[in-house]
């Protein structure tokens, strides 16, 4: 007697799960991860059942849980990464570019720079996607003059929770557009965007460096001179105490003309090379980056900077993306991972900035170089982070005892002067502070209610903070 | 959700009268935890804890949990999740110590202790794991004991039930890799509690508060096994490898 054919395999009760981390490698969660490879596939990737919702994910550079969705669906957009540089009038200052949400600034730069173009805004890493740039409304060294990424967006296509696709922009359902700018991906899946890219004279920058002995000195330098530079940022040593508290190295610059760049790079002003030089080893022991090693590194780094240097020619990767030279540098913090704490407070609260820097220095809390920058005015996004004032960002290994209470205390100082922390970096803030930090949260919630009444778009960040 | 520093926002305690578990919950509540369900055999027994949590603004409740009623464990987990939503943490804190001399006289009593400590941990642990897998996140905190690391003549029934639970929890943790959920083993040494009242304390005897501090620290550092106090890790690395005649002498104390 022939044997009966086997029963068809029953569908799995639990969909396949992949564990996803943020850049800080803390608090992972499991999700059904889908990787569409074409715009059509991307649009069809919305699941039919939304039990635990869906979120889009780009290159995973958010430090915390913004691009995770425990038990739900995560759509990785990075395989849908085409872009078009539009024809333009050669006399205009900017050129329009339309890019899929999964296109990275890295890939864009490889195409743009040789044509004499740059991205409107770049963060400290070029490994972010256009979708992520919009969702976090990223900022860079030019914020004091040019604002954040979404200030440069003409329009974008957004797939809503019901599957429909809408086009929005500052003049086209501006409410939904601005809710999406800095909306952490929670208004829908960003499919593509059209934005303005500036022309540059060469692929090099003319850079001025100033070493500042303490926090007051660096703030003064920035207040007096930032308006003279297109790009400005200070690296600050938060482990220095006493008279050295807040000692910094301020680097500021602008793109060089072809003539200025020629002595360094020769005839082709737009030559662009950006490679990762080394990889961090796949496994790092705990405690490699400890109080002693980081203190020594910070000391060396400060000493090696010139007291004052003018008109140095630097490449784009050296000036904008120094950490990108080490692939996977986030692993150097060991198995417990690390977090980044970034806040902005108004200029008139400079004394609070001093208090915070002082508290961190005194705490003995191990922190690599932190970044200090003065922001220009913010834009209309209710959840967009930047606002006029000082912003400070620091990386801290999570294993440090007493870190939670310390940061909670500092959050209170920030909220006390009308400041806020950056959601794309957050992995631990108290949820009850969010409405105070983002006073227009309810406005944002109304828009979200309109486009996603059933909360189908969901992330671990949204769950943790009750957005 | 768990945050980057190991804080959670909701917790279910199975064995809600455990002094160690209550000390842990107090610390979780002081950080980010706003929802607590205490699983206890008789809800009246947890009134004091419940009132204290509620007056601190915590959304706290009790649920009937009987470690011996293995068939009910999945429903208990579901009911807790129904009550407070996602379970960020499930603490397996129930257990009986018993008296070795009584176990020697009554094999049935010994088997019953094993059904609580080990079998109960297996059924509730697996039920919790299934829930956390579906959620895609969550931590099972399995409180075992250093007594399970090496059994000794005067409490080997208890020790062996904890050894079984410890092995189960480690395996469960490994099976959860990739799911977003995880299982963390806590191995306390001798702790002064109601359970150990009247017993001669072992070296490095400690308190529930100290154990809870070690647990919170271990969670922040993302440890898979938390020895409490931490010195137990070194102590038992040595003790575990002693020749048996020497171990017998030392453990007979």
**What name does CATH use for the topology of the largest domain in chain A?**
Alpha-Beta Plaits
Assembly state: heterodimer
Reported for the largest beta sheet of chain B, the result is: 7 strands, parallel
Strand residues, percent of chain B: 15-25%
Averaged pLDDT of chain B: 96
Radius of gyration of chain A equals 23 Å
| The number of domains of chain A | 2
Describe the protein's architecture and organization.
- The complex is a heterodimer of chains A (467) and B (253).
- Chain A is of the alpha+beta class and 467 residues long.
- Chain A has 2 domains: 83-200, Uridine Diphospho-n-acetylenolpyruvylglucosamine Reductase, domain 3 (2-Layer Sandwich), CATH 3.30.465.10; 204-431, Alpha-Beta Plaits (2-Layer Sandwich), CATH 3.30.70.2520.
- In chain A, 25% of the residues lie in helices and 23% in strands.
- Chain A has 14 helices and 19 strands.
- Chain A has an 8-stranded antiparallel β-sheet with strand order 14-10-12-11-17-18-16-19. A 5-stranded antiparallel β-sheet of chain A has the order 5-6-9-7-8. In chain A, strands 1-2-4-3 form a 4-stranded mixed β-sheet, with no helix packed on it.
- In chain A, strand 1 (18-20) and strand 2 (29-34) form a beta hairpin.
- In chain A, helix 10 packs antiparallel against helix 11.
- Chain A is globular, with a radius of gyration of 23 Å.
- Chain A starts with 17 loop residues before the first strand and ends with a helix.
- With 253 residues, chain B is of the alpha/beta class.
- Chain B has one domain (10-252): NAD(P)-binding Rossmann-like Domain (Rossmann fold).
- Helices cover 47% and strands 15% of the residues of chain B.
- Chain B is built from 9 helices and 7 strands.
- In chain B, strands 3-2-1-4-5-6-7 form a 7-stranded parallel β-sheet, sandwiched between helices.
- In chain B, helix 2 links the parallel strand 2 (35-40) and strand 3.
- Chain B is globular and about 50 Å long.
- Chain A binds chain B through residues 14, 17-20, 24, 26-31, 52, 64-65, 69-72, 286, 335-337, 339, 398-399, 401, 403-404, 427-428, 430-431, 460, 463-464, and chain B through 1-5, 7, 9, 31-32, 86, 133-137, 177-181, 217, 220-222.
């Amino acid at each position: 007697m022939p044997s009966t054919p086997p029963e068809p395999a029953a569908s799995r009760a639990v969909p396949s799960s992949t564990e996803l981390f943020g850049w800080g490698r803390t608090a992972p969660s499991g999700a059904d991860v889908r990787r569409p490879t074409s715009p059509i596939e991307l649009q069809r990737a919305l699941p039919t059942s939304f039990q635990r919702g869906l979120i889009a994910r780009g290159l995973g550079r958010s430090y915390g849980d913004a691009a995770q969705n425990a038990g739900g669906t995560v759509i990785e957009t990075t395989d849908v990464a085409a872009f078009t540089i539009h024809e333009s009038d050669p006399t205009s200052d900017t050129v329009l570019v339309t890019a899929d949400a999964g296109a990275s600034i890295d890939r864009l730069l490889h195409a743009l720079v040789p044509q004499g173009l740059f991205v409107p805004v770049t963060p400290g890493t070029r490994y972010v996607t256009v979708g992520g740039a919009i969702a976090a409304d990223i900022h860079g060294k030019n914020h004091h003059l040019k604002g954040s990424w979404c200030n440069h967006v003409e329009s974008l296509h957004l797939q809503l929770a019901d599957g429909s696709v809408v086009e929005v922009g500052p003049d086209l359902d501006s409410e939904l557009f601005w809710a999406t700018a800095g909306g952490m991906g929670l208004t829908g899946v960003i499919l593509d965007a059209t934005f303005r890219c500036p022309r540059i004279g060469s692929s090099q920058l003319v850079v001025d460096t100033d070493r500042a002995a303490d926090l007051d000195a660096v703030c003064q330098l920035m207040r007096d001179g930032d308006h003279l530079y297109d790009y400005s940022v200070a690296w600050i040593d938060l482990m220095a105490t006493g008279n050295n508290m807040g000692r910094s190295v301020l680097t500021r610059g602008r793109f060089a003309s072809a003539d200025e760049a020629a002595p360094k790079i020769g005839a082709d002003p737009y030559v662009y090379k950006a490679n990762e030089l080394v990889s961090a080893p796949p496994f790092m022991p705990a405690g490699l980056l400890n109080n002693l090693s980081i203190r020594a590194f910070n000391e060396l780094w400060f000493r090696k900077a010139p007291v004052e240097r003018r008109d140095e020619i630097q490449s784009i990767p050296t000036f904008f993306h120094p950490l990108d030279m080490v692939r996977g540098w986030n692993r150097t913090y060991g198995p417990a991972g690390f977090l980044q704490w970034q806040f902005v407070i108004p200029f008139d609260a400079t004394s609070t900035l001093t208090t915070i820097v002082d508290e961190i220095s005194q705490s003995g809390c191990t922190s690599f170089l932190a970044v200090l920058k003065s922001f220009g005015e913010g834009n209309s996004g209710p959840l967009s982070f930047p606002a006029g004032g000082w912003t400070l960002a620091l990386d801290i290994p999570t294993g440090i005892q007493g870190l939670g209470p310390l940061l909670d205390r500092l959050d209170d100082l920030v909220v006390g002067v009308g400041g806020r922390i950056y959601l794309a970096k957050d992995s631990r803030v108290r949820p009850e502070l969010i409405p105070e930090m983002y006073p227009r949260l309810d406005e944002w919630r109304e828009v979200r209610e309109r486009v996603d009444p059933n909360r189908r778009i969901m992330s671990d960040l949204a769950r943790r903070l009750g957005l | 959700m768990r945050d980057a520093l190991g804080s959670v926002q909701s917790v279910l305690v199975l064995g809600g009268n455990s002094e160690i578990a209550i000390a842990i919950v107090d610390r979780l509540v002081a950080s980010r935890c706003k929802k607590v369900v205490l699983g206890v055999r008789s809800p009246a027994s947890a009134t004091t804890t419940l009132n204290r949590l509620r007056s601190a603004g915590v959304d706290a409740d009790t649920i009937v949990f009987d470690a011996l009623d293995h068939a009910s464990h999945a429903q208990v987990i579901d009911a807790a999740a129904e009550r407070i939503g996602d379970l960020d943490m499930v603490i397996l804190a129930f257990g009986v110590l018993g008296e070795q001399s009584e176990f020697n006289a009554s094999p049935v009593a010994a088997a019953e202790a094993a059904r609580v400590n080990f079998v109960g941990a297996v059924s509730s642990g697996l039920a919790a794991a299934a829930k956390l897998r579906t959620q895609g996140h969550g931590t099972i905190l399995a409180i075992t004991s250093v007594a399970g690391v090496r059994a000794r003549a005067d409490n080997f029934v208890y020790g062996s039930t904890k050894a079984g639970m410890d092995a189960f929890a480690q395996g469960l943790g490994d099976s959860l890799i990739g799911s977003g959920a995880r299982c963390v083993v806590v191995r306390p040494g001798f702790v002064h509690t109601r359970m150990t009242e009247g017993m001669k304390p072992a070296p490095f005897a400690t308190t529930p508060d100290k154990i809870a501090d070690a647990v919170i620290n271990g969670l922040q550092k993302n440890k898979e096994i938390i020895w409490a106090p931490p010195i137990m890790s070194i102590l038992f690395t040595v003790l575990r490898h002693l020749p048996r005649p020497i171990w017998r002498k030392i453990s007979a104390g």
